[in-house]
Specification:
The structure holds two protein chains of two kinds. Chain A is an alpha+beta fold. Chain A has eight helices and five strands; from the N terminus they run E-E-H-H-E-E-H-H-H-H-H-E-H. Chain A starts with a strand and ends with a helix. By secondary structure, chain B is an alpha+beta fold. In chain B, helix 4 runs parallel beside helix 9, helix 10 packs across helix 13 and helix 12 packs antiparallel against helix 16. The relative contact order of chain B is 0.17. Classes of the chains: A alpha+beta, B alpha+beta.
Chain lengths: 190, 473
């Protein structure tokens, strides 16, 4: 989908894949893929795009679980004039890199630990604890399933991550390119 | 000096006018079923748990002078560790504002274990303290202490990396345009002038450019001293192993060279009021902030906190009721009290549509003045005290609790500083609150910053007769 953006001055690339349903196999792995790409310590996707000459100013990778089917979403905001088709190619290259190269494996344990930390931090406040426990109750019929939730993350292994990328993050996706009208006008003028 | 000024004022104002009646509650817009009458009633005070206690830290000192503050919290396998060092941005040399900010920021270059541990790292510099906090699951505690030692004792001060960090920070400062950021940059100088608190902790683009890697390295050596630092630990963790970890990794920490000035002079509220109008082209909203310096003495603190709570510190505070509920100009109008070691600041701010900007500034100042002409009522004082105490007793997270420990350490309050503050709030008298409210209301001590599209607004503000309006960009 290509759209003209009337207000923003920079182009945005959004790529969305449909993933497994809430708590089904593959969800924890895709959550870890999102964390690998858009990590608080080292944003792999941004680094790889910049190394490839794509001037990415904002990058985010998110995995959003829901009952009917989850959503894996990448957003990349770039400088004006960036070749957007090339940006799509480069995102594909990074995903392929993750699938083939083992460079990230040693970081996986840290990312799982960070996820566990985030989950625990959420349980500190009464309000967010009630939200999390209500979610468990609605899904499993039992609010006391924190251990079950954590277990799926503790079970994440490099091979499972590769398999999740191969199975879910393929060509069956929606690609939205929003290009500022001002950039199009500029190109015409050139 | 501020303490004695406040004390004198409190004495002079011992007899105050009768309290104003509580604001009326508007009638409900829809018919309330007879069985749900409670919907139209103002809730009474919440029941207080008689067993509630304020957090109390166990405080020890290592042989090298490092303070260890410990609070065990059970229920979740989490721990927050906070290494705090006295000497925040007030230790910056005048020409190098932001040196502390860059020095603490450089610690990230040595934080190589954070990723592997899966802990959250936060670094903050305020006017008095530099803070490095790590939060994570409790099994990572040994790694956290080791990481602290690496950062403090063996920092990586690579000149190229430090220069890159400095240049990025300077660019970010240059690009700051959000009204809140702009006000935050301008207010310190307006409130504190050439006092060590008179510059933003993160520096300015101009001052940052003057800082080189050698200055950061030297500042690190001067700032990080065990006798002026504390390791504050909160969470589900045992004290004995923690004590051993601290001794093993941080016991060899020794101070190098002379310390930067430990004490800064008490700040005094300026007696001349200014309105600074900062122009931002085509922004539809106006952000207005009034601020003044206040005393930081322990005796005044409880009364000041109550006054702030009544003015704008809570959702049902006066500013909110008038600017949001009555006038309908804004989503929120608030005040905030920031207490430092040697002074404090009281800020009252709101964001409104440009068309209401001048009237909003006048109303903001009217409400401040009303703290004297319509002094806090007994009901307002009771509500404010209950809210403030609940905030102390109700800290839920390990991070919030370790922050309480840092605040106590910064002000030499020992391990039970929070309990003492809660008690002081409970004991504060209505006369003291009203005297403080009258002192706070003195118009000439408030400085004002407005960020808006200034076209036409300068004239509108001048017509209010509130003082000179200086246009700035």
């Amino acid at each position: 989908v290509r759209a003209k953006e009337p207000i923003a001055k920079r182009p945005r690339l959004t790529m969305v894949w449909i993933g497994p349903r809430l708590f089904e196999p593959g969800t924890a792995e895709l959550d870890m893929v999102a964390a690998l790409l858009d990590d608080e310590q080292e944003a792999l996707l941004r680094r790889e795009l910049i190394n490839a000459g794509i001037e990415a100013t904002g990058v985010s990778a998110r995995f959003l679980e829901s009952r009917a089917g989850s959503m894996f979403r990448l957003d990349v905001v770039m400088e004006q004039g960036t070749d957007l088709d090339r940006a799509v190619e480069q995102v594909d290259r990074v995903l392929e890199l993750l699938r083939r190269i083992s460079m990230w494996e040693e970081r996986l344990a840290g990312i799982v630990a960070r996820h566990e930390r985030s989950l625990m931090l959420n349980l500190q406040r009464l309000q967010t604890r009630a939200h999390v426990l209500a979610l468990y109750d609605s899904i499993h019929g039992d609010p006391n399933t924190l251990k079950r939730d954590l277990a799926r993350y503790h079970a994440v292994a490099p091979e499972g991550v590769r398999e999740a990328i191969r199975r879910f993050l393929d060509q069956r996706r929606v690609v939205v390119i929003a290009e500022p009208e001002s950039a199009a006008i500029k190109k015409k003028g050139q | 000096m501020m303490r004695s000024a406040f004390a004198l004022f409190a004495f002079a104002c011992a007899s105050q006018p009768p309290p104003a009646p509580a604001p009326a509650i508007a009638p409900p817009l829809i018919e309330v079923p007879a069985s749900e009458k409670w919907r139209s009633e103002v809730p009474g005070p919440a029941a207080v748990d008689p067993k509630r206690t304020a957090p109390s830290f166990r405080v020890e000192t290592l042989p090298n002078g490092l303070t260890l503050m410990f609070l065990r919290i059970e229920g979740l396998p989490l721990v927050s560790m906070r290494l705090v060092t006295v000497g925040g941005s007030s230790a910056d040399p005048i020409a190098q504002a932001g040196l502390g900010f860059l020095t603490y920021g450089a610690l990230r270059d040595t934080a190589t274990m954070v990723d592997k541990l899966g802990v959250e790292l936060a670094i903050d510099v305020d006017r008095d303290l530099g803070t490095v906090e790590m939060t994570g699951v409790n099994t990572t505690a040994p790694g956290m202490v080791r990481q602290f030692a690496e950062m403090i004792l063996r920092p990586k001060h690579d000149p190229k990396t430090l220069n890159g960090r400095r240049d990025r920070h300077a660019k970010q400062l240059e690009a700051r345009s959000a009204p809140l950021s702009v006000v935050g940059d301008r207010l310190p100088a307006l409130l504190f002038a050439d006092h060590p608190y008179g510059h933003p902790s993160h520096g300015t683009a101009g001052s940052i450019a003057k800082i080189d890697p050698a200055a950061i390295k030297a500042h690190h050596a001067a700032l990080f001293r065990p006798e002026r630092s504390a390791l504050i630990v909160v969470g589900e963790i045992e004290l004995d192993p923690l004590r051993k970890l601290a001794a093993h990794h941080l016991g060899g920490w020794k101070a190098n060279g002379p310390a930067p000035g430990a004490n800064v002079p008490a700040a005094v509220a300026r007696e001349r009021s200014d309105i600074v109008l900062i122009h931002r082209e085509n922004v539809s909203q106006a952000f207005a902030c009034a601020g003044r310096a206040v005393g930081a003495g322990t005796e005044e603190e409880a009364a000041l906190r109550v006054v702030n709570q009544i003015l704008g510190g809570a959702f049902n505070s006066r500013l909110q009721l008038v600017l949001r509920e009555t006038k309908g100009w804004t989503y929120g109008a608030n005040s905030a009290l920031n207490i430092f070691r040697d002074a404090g600041e009281l800020l009252a701010c709101t964001q409104v549509e440009r068309s209401a900007a001048a009237e909003a500034v006048r109303t903001l100042l009217d409400e401040i003045a009303r703290m004297s002409s319509a002094p806090p009522t007994d009901a307002e004082i009771r509500g404010a005290v209950a809210g403030l105490q609940a905030a102390i007793y109700g800290r839920e997270t390990v991070s919030a609790l370790s922050r309480l420990g840092a605040e106590s350490f910064a002000r030499n309050r020992g391990g039970d500083g929070s309990a003492r503050l809660a008690a002081a709030l409970g004991a504060v008298g209505a006369d003291a609150v009203r005297a403080m409210a009258a002192e706070v209301a003195v118009r000439e001590r408030w400085q004002i910053v407005v960020v808006a599209d200034a076209r036409g607004l300068q004239k509108e503000l001048e017509q209010l007769g509130l003082g000179t309006v200086a246009l700035s960009r």
